[in-house]
Amino acid sequence: MSSALARHHGRSPAQQPWHRRCPVTVQSTGNIEAAMLLIDRLGVSIDDLRSAAIEKPHVPTFGEYIPVVYNAMPATATRDTYMSYWTKLWPDKRLDEPTVTELKTLIEEARQNRRICRSDRGGQYAVEHFVNALRCLYRFAIDDRYITKEEDPSARLEPPKPLPSNRRALPGELLAAVNHAAAEGGNDPALDTLLLRLHTETACRLGGALALRPEDLDPTQSLILLREKGQKERWQPVTPTLMTALQNQYAERIAYFDPGRTTAINGRPLTIDARQRLLRYRNGLPMSKRRYQILWERIGGAVPAVATHGISTHWLRHTTLRWVERNFGHSVAKAYAGHANQHSRGATTIYTRAGIEEVAEALAAMTGEPHPLASDPGLSWHQADR
């Protein structure tokens, strides 16, 4: 509309209605023509677009989808932990139904109703595990195209900020008291003391010990193959004494195992991985993670500090690795722990990383027992501490 025409109607151009001031009709016509041209080139019709918008994939309920995800994950402690939180979700709700607020409410209810133990930190771990469990579930849903990333409510959940760990190295006197308590009493002190020695010598995690198989032992070089977090593998030196103990306990106990048995003591199916385990109960059944809980509850009854501070197997890892780092340096401690070789500390670490012989030397110094790969047994643990 021209300025003259606007003045003729008694209004300035700025006072004209927006639909008269803007050439919307021309723009809309051009956009429509461009869209129709694109549709024609793609070989689709308007009806095709309408039907595609209407036909949405069926979004499963939590009750339908959780078993699918559970079976798709490797049989690890992480899967079992996540499952304990997935069972708190609404079985009849679709994955795309819950709002962020509803999920936050459910997480808070889980925090309030958690089982409180001595290592409890205000429900920090309950919230963290629940958020991680939800994110894992929705990642599968996104991959299966039931929802889009924009529709993922778990992406807007704020996990709690990590707190510094209370775990630390055990003093020599407390470590001795722990070993003494393990050897006295219980229904299987031989297995309990073997576990403590295995974790003290190797600083391995629970998963590494449970994953051991008979074929993971190399008695000639006194090495065991550890498979731990992230499916990482490493050969770890052990003393000949520990190697012999591991071999003997398996040879003696596997004779009592019934190959036709399909379930564990708790009634759960024996998986292929479990049937291959090196560590065994007296009846020949493969040892489970539950043994550690029983062990530390028993030790806590005899050693008050264990119960007071919530000491667990991972504290042995702290104990060993701190001693190795103090006496043999960071590179050897890093190799001893099986930590990944990252370049964050500079490219030089590629060339200065410790070898398995240096790990064997640290083990020999710590235990006072010669190792086939160590050039010098060095000082014993307590001699080096002086």
Task: Walk me through the structure.
The protein has 386 residues and is mainly α. The protein has two domains: 62-151, no CATH class; 172-341 and 348-367, Orthogonal Bundle (hpI Integrase, Chain A), CATH 1.10.443.10. Helix content is 53%, strand content 3%. The chain has 20 helices and three strands. The protein has a three-stranded antiparallel β-sheet with strand order 1-2-3. Strand 2 and strand 3 form a beta hairpin. Helix 10 (189-202) packs antiparallel against helix 12 (240-253) and helix 16 runs antiparallel to helix 17. The protein is elongated, with a radius of gyration of 31 Å. The termini are far apart. GO terms for molecular function: DNA binding.
Briefly say what this structure is:
This protein is mainly alpha-helical. The chain has helices spanning 3-8, 18-21, 24-42, 46-54, 62-72, 77-86, 100-112, 124-143, 172-183, 189-202, 206-210, 240-253, 272-275, 290-302, 304-309, 314-328, 330-337, 348-352, 356-367, 381-385, and strands at residues 217-218, 223-227, 233-237. It is elongated.
